[in-house]
């Protein structure tokens, strides 16, 4: 990210400052333009929405205009912002948008570390958490439109024979929407769980409920390597808001499973906002650390404080990587998954079953 974009917008941690975006109005054909400014999380009069999305391939970028600076962003983020510009309701149009790839200076390690430390407060303070699953198509557009209609469930609940379109919705949910990469990215689990409410509008709340109903009974058909299941994510959300922050063993066992992250450190840092203070305070948050140093620190915490979990639950379900460079024997496996032909960016996948 270009340093001149942030030069006049320093963040004061003492004031819990973050940067937020305002999207310039315009139709779908106009270039994407944004204004970046700082706000304080302590100022309750300011409303902002936090964007939960998949970063996408950093080698596949497009240019947007932010404070009159040409900024390269992934096409995934550009697509999300363009969609928001065209689809925001009048109420949401008055709010700021927080998107980590732009609002955090990713080249400033100290700033990244400080902002990740505030991530839980950012998502729990946001008036909305907007989930971007990716670009739609005629099939997903039809599915979402139908799920928002009042009579949708009747056919699939057996009250009458399902229509052809209702069957299409069933297929789209199970074989498209529920298999998007959003479900695999570790950070979005914290982002979803920390939202003060899943949806702010009745029709969208109904949409999420329909997603859960549609995939009930389908869970066994979803490959375990394709991320967290929608029902599991919803159960984690409910459990967190009923019982409070998780213990480190629970987070490792249930939140971390089948996840991917661009930075291996985020397998731990992506859990911090969900952890009990007693576990979170023992973990060093520093993006200058080597992944193995962090993993060993967390392993020591688990052995000292939660040895029953290590012996009874965790060790039997871990795979171990003997030969990967910089990953010694006995470390949970980190698989590099290429994003596509000719692309060198690697995602790390932690295999915990």
From TrEMBL:
Residues 48-191 form the Heterokaryon incompatibility domain. It holds the Pfam family HET. It comes from the Eukaryota. InterPro entries: HET, HetReg/Transcr_Mod. This is Heterokaryon incompatibility protein 6, OR allele. It comes from Madurella mycetomatis.
């Amino acid at each position: 990210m270009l340093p001149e974009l942030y030069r006049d917008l320093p963040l004061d941690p003492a004031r819990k400052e973050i940067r937020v975006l305002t999207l310039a109005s315009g139709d779908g054909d106009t270039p994407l333009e944004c204004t970046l400014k700082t706000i304080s999380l302590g100022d309750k009069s300011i409303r902002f929405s936090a964007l939960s999305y998949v970063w996408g391939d950093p080698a596949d970028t497009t240019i947007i205009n932010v404070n009159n600076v040409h900024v390269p962003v992934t096409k995934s983020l550009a697509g999300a912002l363009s969609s928001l510009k065209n689809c925001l309701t009048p109420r949401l149009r008055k709010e700021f948008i927080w998107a980590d790839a732009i609002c955090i200076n990713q080249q400033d390690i100290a700033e990244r570390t400080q902002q990740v430390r505030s991530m839980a407060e950012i998502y729990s303070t946001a008036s909305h958490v907007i989930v971007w699953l990716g670009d739609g198509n005629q099939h997903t557009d039809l599915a979402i439109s139908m799920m928002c209609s009042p009579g949708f469930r009747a056919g699939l609940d057996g009250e009458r024979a399902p229509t052809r379109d209702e069957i299409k919705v069933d297929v789209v949910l199970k074989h498209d929407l529920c298999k998007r990469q959003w479900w695999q990215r570790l950070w979005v689990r914290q982002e979803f769980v920390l939202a003060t409410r899943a949806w702010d509008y009745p029709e969208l709340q109904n949409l999420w409920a329909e997603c859960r109903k549609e995939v009930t009974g389908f869970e066994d058909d979803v490959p375990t390597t394709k991320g967290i299941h929608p029902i599991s994510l919803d159960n984690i959300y409910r459990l967190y808001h009923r019982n409070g922050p998780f213990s480190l063993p629970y987070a490792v066992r249930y939140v971390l499973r089948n996840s991917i992250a661009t930075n291996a450190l985020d397998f731990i840092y992506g859990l911090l906002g969900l952890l009990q203070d007693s576990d979170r305070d023992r973990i060093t948050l520093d993006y200058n650390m080597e992944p193995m140093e962090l993993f060993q620190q967390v392993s020591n915490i688990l052995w000292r404080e939660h040895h029953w979990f290590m012996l009874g639950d965790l060790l039997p379900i871990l795979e171990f990587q003997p030969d990967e460079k910089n990953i010694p024997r006995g470390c949970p496996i980190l698989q590099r998954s290429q994003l596509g032909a000719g692309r060198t960016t690697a995602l790390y996948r932690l295999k915990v079953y």
